[in-house]
Amino acid sequence: MPDMNCYEILEVSPNASPAVIKAAFKSLMQRYHPDRNPGDAQIAEHASQVVQAYEVLSDPAKRAAYDMTLSQQPAAPQVASRDNQREVRYAVAPEEDQHRNLYWIVWTLIGLTMAASMLVLFLTRSQPVPEPAAIQQATVASAASDEARTLPLFLVRLNINLLTLKKPSADAGNTPDAAQEIWEDSGNVLAIPVLGVKVGTFDSLKVIRHLEANETYIRQKLEKKLAKADYDELAKIGGEQYLKNMILDAIDEASGTNRHEDYPPSPGESPGRYGVIEALLPESFTVSKIGGTRDSTP
Fold first, then answer.
1. CB atoms within 10 A of CB 130
2. Are residues 292 and 148 in the same domain?
3. Does 163 lie in the same domain as 254?
4. What span, in angstroms and rounded, lies between the C-alpha atoms of 287 and 118?
5. Which residue intervals of 18-93 are DSSP H helices?
6. Which of 66, 92, 118 is the last residue of a domain?
7. CATH of the domain at 43
8. Residues 61 and 149 in one domain
9. pLDDT tens figures, 169-228
């Protein structure tokens, strides 16, 4: 093919693979096809040259013969394109380029993963193994400091009018049963500024969510239960523990749990407990006369 360089026409390198040549041909035909450029004689002529060049380079035998002929010709100076502006470009098949990039990415990721695994393995082997006792102490400390098992601020400002059981008159005969008990206002108010709770380790998050979702109902149960607290017991030195036990009983009843029942053990609790296991009174409590001065501060 005199006066025509097939590689330059297809805009590919002389070392281009058959796939690259095919891709370049498709790309150029889409650009220079006469149907896309009606009435342009130069475009039509260039499209014809593209077809001829592809016929040569797509056939292995023709390409080998053409390459031999090309190698025997003296190097020709670079000829400007038809419009003296177009530079010779080497086309690369999009599919081949994408595949090549993908392979590099995959192999790079594999190499990084293997390097990270070896580093982790080295660091793990190089660290001293702690003694069992140290492991146990660390686990217990972690469990003990687990804030998820404690609600330090569950209820605030519990003000409860204490009731007292009305004594039967001397001529009333036998003591009435529980269904006939009559409670009346004692004139005292039990005030709990802040109430917190601690739950057992068994399904602790579920218990805490239940407490938070049913706060109003539990408050009502507490107020009803604590209204019957014994004033004399509250006034004693151990009155706070007496009050805490009443609080725990009320929460057990309201939530349907039993803090005394054994559950599977955990590193921080053996046996495990389900439900509220401790009442927290960070500001203690007071018992006051209604409308009067404080009567007792345990």
1. 11
2. yes
3. yes
4. 67
5. 18-32, 41-57, 60-72
6. 92
7. 1.10.287.110
8. no
9. 655 555 555 557 888 898 889 999 999 999 988 888 888 989 999 999 999 999 999 998
Residue 108 maps to a domain: no
Residues 254 and 217 sit within 8 Å (Cβ to Cβ): yes
Asked whether the whole model's pTM tops 0.90, one would answer no
CA quadruple 135, 137, 142, 143: dihedral positive or negative? positive
Residues 101-132: tens digit of each pLDDT: 777 888 888 988 888 878 877 776 655 444 44
Residue 15: Cβ-neighbour burial (10 angstroms; 0-12, 13-18, 19+): exposed
What Rg value do the Cα atoms of the chain yield, rounded? 46
Pair 88, 147 in one domain: no
Q: Which domain holds residue 59?
A: 6-92
Question: How many Å apart are CA 207 and CA 201, to the nearest integer?
Answer: 10
Q: Locate all alpha helices (DSSP H) within 187-273, ordered by sequence.
A: 204-213, 215-226, 231-235, 239-255
Q: Could you give the angle at the alpha carbon of 276 between the alpha carbons of 274 and 281, nearest 5°?
A: 160
Total of domains in the chain: 2
